[in-house]
Structure formats: structure tokens, C-alpha cells
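P.,

For your records, the input lines for the assembly:
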Amino acid sequence: MGDNLLEVKNLKVYFPVKGKLFPTVVANVRAVDGISFKIKRGETLALVGESGCGKSTTGKAILRMIEPKEGQVFFEGNNILAYDRKKLKALRREMQLVFQDPYASLNPRMAVGDILNEVLFVHRLGNSPQRKARTLELLEMVGLTSRYLARYPHELSGGQRQRVVIARALAVNPKFLVCDEPVSALDVSIQAQIISLLEELQQRLNLTYLFIAHDLSVVKYVSNRVAVMYLGKIIELAEGEELYRNPCHPYTKALLSAIPLCDPDADSAKILLVGELPSPENPPRGCRFNTRCDRVKEECLVNEPVDQAIGHNHQVACHLYHGNGLK
Amino acid sequence: MSVVNDQIKLEEETLIPANRIFDLAKRLLKNKGAVLGLFIIVLLFLSAIFAPLIAPYSYQAQSLSKMLRPPGQGHILGTDEFGRDMFSRIVYGSRISLLVGFVTVGISLVIGVVLGALAGYYGGLLDYIISGLTDIAWSFPRNLLAIAFIATLGPGLLSVMLAVALISWAGFARLIRGQFLSLKEQEFVEAARVLGMSDFRIIFRHIIPNALAPIIVLTTLEVPKAIIVEASLSFLGLGAQPPTPSWGSIMSSGRSYIAMAPWVVIFPGLMVMIVVLGFNLFGDALRDSLDPRLRD
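C-alpha cells returned:
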């Protein structure tokens, strides 16, 4: 295991589709179809992809909010998919989730102080005065003050709510956070604040992040490594710098070319993807990207590409890179 | 970060005081309908509690010489066919109406919350069975089902309360199941689950408080409905037995004299109407002020 905090092996999450007439399984939506990755202690792995590619499902399966069909998730060397209820509750103190929509992820009828205190109470973390002190500490940690204790979520702005959501996740002192698009529901000006808050907390508390996003420009600032997902598979995984400098998979290239540039004179030959994401109920044969790829070959229609290392910590699943990474 | 802090400080200046109940009362008093509804309900409660002090006569003191007197002359609302004071009987009648209204709704609320929560939260076979039962209970006309229950339980006030409770839980169960179905998918419920909270805590701390507004509205609509069902059952002679002064039974006994003494029927009927209106007005206003998102 070494310094890997989390290791995901061949994770599959299928959602059964039931028949209209009889409740038998007629098909499976293959939301996550066999993905593997490792996250080192203290690093941030970004999981990127368009809507419906299975990135949020991956995050939820790691947290066991959704039961995976197959695969293993090792947290500090233990396969957490085998945990029973009691062990699972203890695991909740180790890994937590920051939700996408801070408007929906706070109970509208509980004041901020109660929201934080409840978490501490449920996990029996300290007595009443200790919990109160810890609640204040948590608020300060995310840049809020004691004035917010009695406030209700609807009295807060989106950024303030997201701060409360982060404080709630940190209440149990976790080692690992899944950030499920934590800034995509926020204004651009607030996004930067929340991201820098997350980075600051990572430094201070030695946290490890799985950062889920649909937008590579946000990811650029936070992640050490980036995994690009397409239709339930990881198609490219590399260190952040490397991926931005040398994207290999045609899909990654298309995503990167979609980032707006500030320089009006820059050569902005955008690669436009045509068509929709194919249905994960019935993914295309061969390479899953073959319906939208601009460099599709005959082989892509038949064989599914396997992960290939094409450089230092850089892997890609594409038939263009046979052998030693030469096109 | 300093930009954020400035912003936070600015907002703290305009902080609202946190006394929630005081807040709620203040908002309610701004609403004219709520004040009128509350006024009617309070009056009803007062007359039920202090009936012996308010009523000028006993509700069963007969005086055959004063049969069917029109309103006026010592009897503000006239007298009935036995010369009993109508005002006194109506005042005592408020006890029956309130008792039936609250006891039945209390019972059906408990049944409805338990069944609705189980069905909505756990789903599956449990939901299938409970929803089936609810639909069966829901599909019968209220009064007919109540009559059928009373036929087996025997007439009387207790039977009426049980019968009405057994027919009106379905409305609560349906409402609560629906609320659970939508609320359990909400992110804050998912958050509670990820944070390791128990089902019991999630149901009672996170889901039910957020379903409270529609439950309260339905309760305030069910209390007057129960009052009406009680009145109609008593009117049919299945509820409160004479000489117990229920508004329904007063109307029932007065219906033979409706041409010569309409006041015997009109005043209890008017009371039913006013009380139902009062509950509905108050319930609507309460719903509006309870929802923090609708505030101001």
C-alpha cells in the first residue's frame, strides 16, 4: 500500500433498468464500468468528465452511498466494501463528502450551529461545552464567525452555505474528502474563494481530496493528478501539468480546447465534439469514444483499448498510442 | 480572504434577532385572516372551557311553557321544542365539536405519520402494502364508511371519534408518504446519511420538520372536516345521544320545526360554518408563516 490512502480496483456500479410490465431486470445502466486508481496521502486527484459519465457515482460508491456491483475500494489498506454497519459508521469519521449544491445540502430548518453540533453529537465527540467550542472552531476554520451560529441556511449566500457544508464535513475530522463539484453551483467570483479555502484546509489538516468536476479550468488550480472519465471509464490519467501540456486522448484534447483563453490573438482552433454522449445502457462496441472521435480507426470499432503507460505517470486508453507512445 | 471577511462583517450589521417563536407570532399577527381565525378558535375554546359560566341556563333544563320561543326575551337565540335555551345548548355543543375534532385528528395523525413514514422512507414491499391499504381507505365515501364503522361499534360519541379517525388517517398517510418520497432524495438527507446518522434521526430530525408545513395545513383542514362529520352523524342519530347537546343533534331535532322555528336549525348550522372557516383561515396563515422560505 505504502503511501496510498485510497485505492480503487476495477470498480463497477450498475443501475438495473426494470421492465415496465414485470419488475425484472431488462438492462443495466453501466454508470461506472471498471475503473481503477490510487490516491496518495495529501494529494488531490481530480475526476473530470461531462455530465452522465459516472464521476459523481464513483464518488458516491467510494463513500458507500451507492453499493457497487463489483470491485474493491481500499482505504488505508482495508477493503471498505466489506464493512458492516458498525464499521461503516466509524468509516464516516474518516471520509466525508462536500456536496455540489449548497442550497440543497443543508437542512433548511436547522440553524448553522445545530447542523454542526448534530454531527458531533451523533459521533459522540465531546460533551456539550466541548461540542460548542468545536462548533466555533469549525466555523472559524472555514472563515465564518460565531455570529452565524443562529442563522438558517436561507439567510446565507451560496458561498457562505458552501463554507458551512465544508465545516460540517470537517466536523468528524476526516482524512479524506470527496468534493463533488463543490464550486459549480457558485458564482465565478465565489468559486475562487471556496477553492482557495479548500486548498488552505488541505495544507492545514493534511487532507486528501477526490475532486470531481466537469470543467478542466477549475481543476487546473487544485489537483496534483487528473483522471478523465468518459462513459464509465477512465480514459486518461496524468499529473496535472503533464495533462495540460501534453493531452493524448482525443477526448481530453477536445475538453482542453474548450477552455476559454484570455488572449484574443491566440490560436483557438477548438475541437468541437459532435453528437451526444451514447447511452451507458448500451455503450458502443470497441472504444467507447468511437462515435464522437475525430481520429477513429477501424480498430477502434472492434477492440476496447486498454490502459497504456506513455510516460512518467501518464496513462491513456486509446488505440492511437500503441507501443511506446508514438502516434 | 479579506474581501470575504469584509462582506461577512457588512452582513452582520443587518442580522435578524433569532427568537423564533416570537418571530412566528409577529408574522402571524400581521395576517388579518390569521387574526380572525385565531379569534374564532380562541372564542370556541373559551366557550368550551367556561361553558357553565357562560350559559345562562342548563343545557337540559326543560320548560314546556317556553317551547319554540323566537330569539329575544331572556333567550338570546330562542328555545327548542322542549323549551331549552338554544344559546346554552350551543355553548355546551362547542365542547363536543372540539373534543371530536381534536381527538379524531390526533389519532389519525399518529396512524398517518407512522404508516406514511414507513412507506415513504423504506419503500419496496412495505410501501406496496401500506399504499394499497391507504387507497382502499381513501376510496370509500367518508360518511358511508363512518356509518359502516358505527354500525359495528354501536352509536355514541366514542364510536364517532374512532370511526372518523379510521377513515381520515389515509389522507395523512398519503401526504406524509409523498413528502418522504421527495425529501429522502434531497441532498441534505443524503448528507445526514453520509454523516452516519440513524434512520430514526433522519426521519424525525431531518424529514418530518421539513414536511411540517403541509402536515399542519392538512391538520387544520381535517379538524373542521371531523367536526362536520360528527355533526352529520349526530344529525343522523348515530353520534351524540340526546340530551347531549351536539350541534348536529340539535339541528336534527330542530328539522321537524324548521318552518315555524327556523332558529333551532340556523344557529347550530351557522356555528359549524363559522368554526370551520376559523380553522381554515388560521391554518392557511400558519402555513405561510411556518415556511422559512416564504418569510417576508
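Two observations worth noting. The interface with chain B takes residues 63, 65, 88-89, 92-93, 96-97, 99-101, 104-111, 118-119, 122-123, 143-145, 147, 150-152, 154-155, 159-160, 165, 168, 172, 193, 196 of chain A (CB under 8 Å). Chain A has a mean pLDDT of 88.

Regards
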